[in-house]
Each structure stands twice: as C-alpha cells, then as structure tokens.
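input
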Amino acid sequence: MNKKVIALAISLAMSTSLLIAQEKEDERLANSSKALEQILSGGNGLPTNVLNRALCVLVFPNVKKAALGIGQSYGRGALVCRKGATMNGEWGAPAMYSLDQSSLGLQLGGSSTDFVLVAMNQKGADQILNGKVKLGGNAAAVAGPTGAQATQYDAQAMNNKDILTYSRSKGALAGVSMEGAKIDTDKDANKALYGKDITAKEIVSGNEQVPPAAQPLVNVLDKASPARKQ
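output
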C-alpha cells in the first residue's frame, strides 16, 4: 500500500478518535450543567450562602453503581473554580475529574445520583487541584448543610470546613458523607477538551478560555453567584 495512503488513513483514524473524545467531554459538560442547574433551583437546592462562599464546585452527574463489584460506583464530572489570586471572582474554565467511590458504603441501586463537592477554603481547593485525593484522608470533607441548618452557617463556620459534600437522587438534595471516595484529575478528558496536556491548576489559573461546550455550566454558576461575597 502506498505510504501516502497509509499516512492518510492514520491521520483520519486519529482525527476520528479525537472527535469522539471531544464529543464525550461535550456530553459530560452538558450533563454537569443540567445537573447543577437542577441542584441550584428550588427551595431545597444548594444553599445560596454556601455557594457565595465557595471557591470551587465539583459536579459528578448521573453516577450509578457499577455492574461489577458490590457497592462500587464510578463517575466523571467537571470542576469550576473562581478566578483571581484569592479565588473570589467570576467562575472560570472547567477541569475534568473522575470519582471512584468503591470504598464507600453508599448503595446507589439502579437510579443515578448527582454528587456535588464544594471547596470552601483555599486548603480544600488546593487538595482537589493537586490531583488524586482521598476524601476524609488528606482532605477533610463533611456532609453539607441544607435547609434551616444552612441558614445558621456563618462565614467562620464555612471557612473551617475544607469541602462540603452533597448528593441528589430523585430530586432531593441532601448532605452526604463521602469519606473514603477518591477523586482525581481526568488527564485524557482535559487533553481532549483543551487540545493539549494541561493540569487542573493551569486550567483554573484564568489563562484558559472557557470552551464553548462548557459555557452553559459556567453561566449557571455566574447567574447563581456572580462573585463570592466577602
């Protein structure tokens, strides 16, 4: 076979592979946007005072128990952090993450569950941005407050929590312990989304433009909490 034909075939295969990868990440971002919009809506959604103090929000939509293994589940989602040196500005470009909660006692059954992790201080944000982290190990994570409990949370109380964790199943949002869950940056997904090898820290530094597929997700956060209150 002619070398030019072989080269063309390889090039087409690579282009097709990149396109499929891009479509997968676009779908993940769309699912994350939809899940977060539902989580933020209504009187029983993510408390506004919590979101206003948040530095980063990590969404894992439609997590289901894996077919193999008892109680094992695996999810993929997106992290969005505020811009600025002190992370108190508008929301920036997302970094893609994976969730492995095989060591958790949560039984998801056949229904899908959305998980939301909210970094409330710099330590919590840094732990997530550093890559692989085990919640409850090197990152203190507690079930997030909702309803009347959330209204009693003042700035000092929230700043003392590294990461607040929530789950939403069948329309109900609740604080949930995710101790033992492992989260990590999804390097392949970030490469597919931004077209280069890039770390989560580099993405949220403010130098990356928000990809078109991620704009709805960022818009949801900007609308709900334009700037973190001091």
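quick obs: The first strand starts at residue 56 and ends at 65.
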